[in-house]
């Protein structure tokens, strides 16, 4: 049996992952700066504590403390690392750096990234000559979570959003409005925001056109975020203010409030269109158990090396089924594929 260690396993999301892995019967240990197994991503001398483990699941705050050094240390020793960050630049940087590693690096875990990537890959594989993939993510930025999620949200307001048109990468300099999206019967306003999925989905599927949009709850946040000038979002004082604002809301006032998450993906090609959605009443619980299911699947498949995305290693339906099995309750609701004729291709950014 593989020995698994979870970096940040005592945190808001990490504790849920550890619970899920223990329910799966895994040999799992918690590591952090304050746990019994002490590891600090900024102190290479602490990395030796990871030596006994086969699989490392990283849930640390990659915005504040880049994980590059600890991941490189693990991969050089042939270990398997699952990096669950949703920070776009971190995902792209790690993917480029470790394509040829002798270890195994899996990028994507939890709800988004993770289930979102599996959903996009699932619909993409259900059409013929793939022309486009649209992925929508809906959640509340005000529901309870930990420090890492707060740092990630502030970062996403600063970093340009990415989309693909005709196979070419296009960067949006600031948050701006997108089209309304149908999340299984509920239509929500959306916007382009920095997420890791555009790069991951385009690389995984090869779709010439990829749009990934965020639909915050309440929908009034779309124009509010879009109204923030790029120069302001990049200023240190504004970022400090936003971190304080979200900390008060999420970690203090709303810590016990679950964040419902909805995902919808549509793929078009060869005159056909396929849509599918996933819903979770509590995104943190679902994300924790989903990542546990993913870690279990990754640990069981050791016949490869290099850097891959989660949808290269496992698939949507078995992960949804295993997530719900580990939780003992249907945390993730998955729709059947909805098929129809492809609509005329439009540029969503218009």
Question: Can you put this structure into words, describing what you see?
Answer:
By secondary structure, the protein is an alpha/beta fold. It has two domains: 3-111 and 284-330, Rossmann fold (3-Layer(aba) Sandwich); 113-283 and 333-341, Dihydrodipicolinate Reductase, domain 2 (2-Layer Sandwich), CATH 3.30.360. Helix content is 36%, strand content 26%. It contains twelve helices and 19 strands. It has helices spanning 14-23, 68-76, 88-97, 111-124, 147-158, 197-205, 221-226, 230-233, 236-253, 283-299, 310-313, 316-327, and strands spanning 3-7, 27-32, 37-38, 55-58, 80-83, 104-107, 130-139, 161-165, 168-172, 176-177, 181-182, 187-188, 191-192, 209-216, 261-269, 272-280, 306-309, 332-334, 338-341. The strands form five sheets. It has a seven-stranded parallel β-sheet, sandwiched between helices. Helix 4 packs across helix 10 (283-299) and helix 5 (147-158) runs antiparallel to helix 9. The protein is globular, with a radius of gyration of 19 Å. The termini are far apart. Residues 345-350 have low confidence and may be disordered.
């Amino acid at each position: 049996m593989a020995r698994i260690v979870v970096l940040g396993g005592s945190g808001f999301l990490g504790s849920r992952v550890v619970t899920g892995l223990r329910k799966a019967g895994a040999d799992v240990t918690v590591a952090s700066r304050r746990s019994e197994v002490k590891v600090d991503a900024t102190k290479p001398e602490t990395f030796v504590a990871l030596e006994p483990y086969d699989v490392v699941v990283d849930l640390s705050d990659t915005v504040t403390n880049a994980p590059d050094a600890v991941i490189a240390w693990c991969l050089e020793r042939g270990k398997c690392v699952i990096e669950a960050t949703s920070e776009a630049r971190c995902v792209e940087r790690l993917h480029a750096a470790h394509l040829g590693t002798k270890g195994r690096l899996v990028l994507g875990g939890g709800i988004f990234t993770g289930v979102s990537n599996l959903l996009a890959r699932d619909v993409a594989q259900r059409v013929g000559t793939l022309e486009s993939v649209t992925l929508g993510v809906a959640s509340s930025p005000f529901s309870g979570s930990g420090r890492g999620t707060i740092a990630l949200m502030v970062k996403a307001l600063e970093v340009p959003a990415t989309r693909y048109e005709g196979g070419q990468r296009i960067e949006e300099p600031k948050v701006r409005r997108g089209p309304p999206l149908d999340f299984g019967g509920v239509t929500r306003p959306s916007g382009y925001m920095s997420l890791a999925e555009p790069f991951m989905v385009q690389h995984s599927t090869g779709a010439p056109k990829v749009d990934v949009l965020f639909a915050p709850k309440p929908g009034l946040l779309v124009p509010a975020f879009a109204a923030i000038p790029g120069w302001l979002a990049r200023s240190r004082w504004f970022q400090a203010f936003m971190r304080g604002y979200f900390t008060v809301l999420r970690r203090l006032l709303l810590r016990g409030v679950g964040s419902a998450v909805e995902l919808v993906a549509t793929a078009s090609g060869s005159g056909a269109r396929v849509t599918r959605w996933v819903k979770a009443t509590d995104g943190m619980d679902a994300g924790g158990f989903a990542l546990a299911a993913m870690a279990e699947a990754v640990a069981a498949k050791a016949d490869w090396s290099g850097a891959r995305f989660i949808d290269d290693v496992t698939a949507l339906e078995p992960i949804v089924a295993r997530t719900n099995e580990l939780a003992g309750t249907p945390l993730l609701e998955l729709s059947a594929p909805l098929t129809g004729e492809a609509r005329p291709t439009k540029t969503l950014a218009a």
